[in-house]
Design a protein that fits this description.
The protein is an alpha/beta fold. The protein contains nine helices and seven strands; from the N terminus they run βαβααβααβαβαβαβα. The chain has a single domain, classed as TIM Barrel, CATH 3.20.20. About 30% of the residues lie in helices and about 10% in strands. The two termini are about 25 Å apart.
C-alpha cells in the first residue's frame, strides 16, 4: 500500500488558479474539504487547462466533511481518485464524538466500496488547534470502531515555534515523533498528514498566526523528514491560499503558499514548489 515518494507532496486548495501556480511535483494530489473539485470552483469543469490538471487517478481526493454530508454522499468519479477522506476535525464539531462517528462508519465504508475497485478509506482527521483533544478523539473512535475498515490515518499538526532555526527543528522533530507514535499505536497504518504548518488560527495556541519567516523555517526542517519517513504516505501544507478570516487574522497570514490576491506564490510557496527530493 506504500505510495511512491513523489506522490507525497500535495495541496489543500479549492481554486484552479491557485493550483496552476504549482509544478506537478508539488501537487501530486489535492483535496478541498469537499466531495468534488467543482463544488467550490466551476472552473475545474469549464476551463480546459483546469480539466487537464486532474486527469491522473492520483490527483483529487474527495472528503465527506461531516456526519450531515453522509446522507447525500455519492461514490467519487474513479478517474479522479483512488482514496476517500473521512470527516474534517470532528473533535471540533458539536455532537460528532468518536463514538458517534464510529457508529456510522459503515456508511463511509459503503461509499468507498461502491467504487470499483474500492477506494482506500482514510480516518476522520481530528486535531485542529488542540492536539491532545484530537488524539483523545481518535482513541475514542478507534476503540468503538472495532472491525471497521480504516486504510490510513489522516492527521493534523499545528504545534510549532518557528522563531529560530533551533526551535523550528525541534518542532519538526516533535511532529515526526508524534506521527510515528500514532502510526505505531493504531496498527501501523500509513499516515496522511492532511494539514500542517507552524501555528495556524487563534488561541489556545500561544504562538498561533506566526510570521511567514517562522513558517518557512519550520517548512525547511519538516519536508526532508516527511519525505524520509516511510510511514508517511502523503502530506499537504495548510494551505495554498489563506485569506483574512476571524480564525486567521491579518491581511495575508504567514502560512499562505500564495499572495493575498492569489496571483503568485509567496516565498513559502516558492520553497514548497521548488523543494527537491535529492536535497
Amino acid at each position: 500500500m506504500a505510495s511512491p515518494p513523489n506522490v507525497k507532496r500535495g495541496l489543500v486548495a479549492r481554486f484552479c488558479k491557485h493550483t496552476r501556480l504549482f509544478p506537478p511535483r508539488a501537487r501530486r494530489w489535492q483535496y478541498n474539504h469537499g466531495a468534488t473539485l467543482e463544488e467550490f470552483d466551476a472552473t475545474w469543469r469549464t476551463d480546459s487547462a483546469c480539466r487537464s490538471l486532474h486527469t491522473s487517478a492520483e490527483f483529487y481526493v474527495p472528503m465527506v466533511y461531516d456526519l450531515s454530508a453522509l446522507a447525500t454522499a455519492r461514490p467519487p468519479n474513479r478517474t479522479h481518485t483512488t482514496s476517500l477522506l473521512g470527516m474534517n476535525e470532528p473533535s471540533d464539531h458539536k455532537n460528532e464524538t468518536g463514538r458517534a462517528v464510529a457508529a456510522r462508519w459503515h456508511e463511509m465504508e459503503a461509499i468507498a466500496d461502491r467504487s470499483s475497485p474500492a477506494l482506500l478509506l482514510g480516518s476522520p482527521s481530528p486535531g485542529g488547534l488542540e492536539l491532545k483533544k484530537g488524539e483523545r478523539w481518535l482513541h475514542e473512535f478507534m476503540a468503538h470502531c472495532v472491525g471497521c475498515r480504516v486504510d490510513f490515518l489522516a492527521l493534523h499538526w499545528y504545534e510549532c515555534d518557528g522563531s529560530t532555526e533551533a526551535t523550528a527543528e525541534a518542532s519538526a522533530r516533535a511532529m515526526m515523533g508524534w506521527l510515528s507514535s500514532v502510526h505505531q499505536r493504531f496498527g501501523r497504518r500509513p499516515i496522511w498528514l492532511t494539514e500542517f504548518n507552524c501555528g495556524d488560527g487563534a488561541a489556545p495556541q500561544p504562538l498561533a498566526n506566526q510570521s511567514a519567516d517562522h513558517h518557512l523555517r519550520f517548512m525547511r526542517m519538516a519536508l526532508p523528514l516527511l519525505e524520509a519517513a516511510s510511514f508517511v504516505h502523503r502530506y499537504a501544507w495548510f494551505q495554498t491560499w489563506q485569506r483574512h478570516t476571524p480564525m486567521h487574522p491579518g491581511h495575508n497570514p504567514g502560512c499562505s503558499l500564495t499572495s493575498l490576491d492569489g496571483s503568485a506564490k509567496s516565498a513559502l510557496g516558492r520553497f514548497y514548489a521548488a523543494y527537491d527530493l535529492k536535497r
